[in-house]
Amino acid sequence: MGESADLREPILERAPRSGRGCLARTSGLLRGISRSFSSVKNTFTSLFVTIRTLIVKEPAKTIHSFKMGLALSLAFLLVMLKQPYSVIGSHAIWAVMTVVVVFEFGVGATLSKGLNRGAGTLGAGILAVILGQFARICGHVAYPIVVGLCVFVVGGVVTFTRLLPSWKTYEFGFRTFLITFSLIMVAEYRQGDPVDTAINRFIIILIGAGIGLSVNIFVLPLWAGDELHDSIVKNFESVADSLEVCVDEYLKGTVLERVPSKIFMGLAADDPVYKGYRTALVSASKEESLASFAVWEPPHGRFMKYWWKYPWQQYYPWPQYQKVGAVLRHCTYSVVALHGCLRSAIQAPLPVRLLFETELRDVSLQSANVLRELGKQVKNMQKGDPMEILNGVKHSVERLQQSLYLNSYLLVKQEGFEDGMPENLSLKVLPELKKYEKRDNQNGFFRSGSVHKMGIAYSHDEASEESRKYFRKLNSWPYRPIDDFDFAKDSLLEQRVRVLESASALSLGTFATLLMEVALRLDYVVEAVDELSDMAKFKCSNEKSVHGKNLNGTEDMVLTAQENC
């Protein structure tokens, strides 16, 4: 009995351990299944949120997908219904392929591809039948040689023509031409019935193109002209916002990190200034394609009245929209340079920036107002006065130029001069000190005996003591006092510090100059919009003059609407 008890004891001890292990494995398995279900649930939730966001933000893509499915379903009826299939046969697949190939996002692109495909098929069919008959006339021996020679010549000539820049619009038609020509020549050589093949293919392609065009035009149409029009308006708003944010951040003294790699590569980045002008910079190819597709579109929407009033015109001036976008990008490049100054390693001290805050902010505000007003004119298809719209910008630029001229000496670091001035002395009065200037036109400073140190040449052999105690004249700056050439007496470290301080202050001049360049380039933008309004026959605005106050409190006219254009 004792031995049996001893034998049972390990079994009794092992049983609970085995039960605990099985329970642990079951619990781990359940946790793994739970995690898997949770992961699948999160994946589907994320996918659902992404799809919902895409549908809400970009409904045009959803509409295009729906229309594509509808067009394919209609094309498949040729295969599924007995009566059409008994007539068309296996050639019905060409209708489905045509729908897939020609069905594009916009009506213009679909019309362009459909007409190119139809013209290419018809031309290739006629040429293949003619060349096939000519090869048969040449005799049984020369027949394969003539066919091969014709294929070689036609393929080379068509490909070379397709590569010409002036024929770029018809590239898809040339590709279709080569495909159809090759198929019919094969049918001519092996089956001996090229006419039937050409006719069947052409009819089926017409059916497929007709299905695609009908669905694209009559079911929630997406017009390339509308998209181009809205894109130009959006670019005006984006560049205006970018300009205002850039100047505002500069005057706040915002310190930014080095330029991210995404900006170098032209990708989207979390930078409010970059987000604004990037839209305008990357839209060149989009505007080119939209303008080329819009030419194919029939009169529609807001552009319908143009053809009713001017039926003798060939087409709406879509290429002029492309020109407006190009000129706007030319102006945007200066905004990009301003953004570079904002991220530069050499920055002017904030107190120096604030000395010109009123003028800088006024120029940016007036320039942004002009951009928004031009975008509004294009959006509403109204014509403004190009002479009056720039008045506010011109006045603000003149004030900034005058302020830079009067206070330019502040952009050059100099110790003795600033220390000797009262703190409450108005900056507008400081240039009056030029009346104490002592010139010595007969004795030049830089004639001989120059001493070179740190790359700076100076001489005081022929400089009078009286002149060196007061001011000397620079080539491109107002008169400023000299410090008795103390720069050469400083240590190497002190010289480098003074040079760095001077360069930092001078960076403000670079920023102000680029801002004025943005304002001056608006002339080209206004001219391009005015040409568009004349060519597209925009209506004349009958509203009263709109005025805007600048930061100095004076009124500048932003836009004067014309009663009679």
Helix/strand order, N-terminal first:
HHHHHHHHHHHHHHHHEHHEEHEEHEEE
Q: How many strand units?
A: 8
> Helix- and strand-based class?
mainly alpha
Integer average pLDDT: 73
* Number of helices, counting only DSSP H or I runs of 4 residues or more: 20
Task: Record the strand order, biggest sheet.
Answer: 1-6
Q: State the share of residues found in helices, binned by percent.
A: 55-70%
Q: What can you tell me about this protein's structure?
A:
The protein has 565 residues and is mainly α. It folds into three domains: 17-57; 62-218; 224-411 and 502-559, Phosphate transport system protein phou homolog 2, domain 2 (Methane Monooxygenase Hydroxylase, Chain G, domain 1). It contains 20 helices and eight strands. A two-stranded parallel sheet has the order 1-6. Strands 2-3 form a two-stranded antiparallel ribbon. The chain starts with a helix and ends in a 6-residue tail after the last strand. Mean pLDDT is 73; it is low at 1-15, 414-490 and 543-564.
Output the keywords.
extended, disordered C terminus, Methane Monooxygenase Hydroxylase, Chain G, domain 1, two-stranded antiparallel sheet, membrane, 3 domains, mainly alpha, ion transport, 20 helices
Summarize the SSE layout with pairings.
Blueprint lengths: L1 H56 L1 H22 L1 H7 L4 H10 L4 H31 L5 H20 L8 H21 L2 H25 L5 H29 L8 H4 L7 H10 L2 H11 L9 H6 L8 H25 L7 H6 L1 H24 L1 E2 L7 H16 L8 H5 L31 E3 L2 E3 L6 H4 L2 E2 L7 E2 L10 H44 L3 E2 L5 E4 L5 E5 L6
Parallel strand pairs: 1-6
Antiparallel strand pairs: 2-3, 4-5, 7-8
Helix pairs in contact: 1-2, 2-3, 2-4, 2-8, 4-8, 5-6, 5-7, 5-8, 5-12, 6-7, 7-8, 9-11, 9-12, 9-14, 9-16, 11-14, 12-14, 14-20, 16-17, 16-20, 17-20
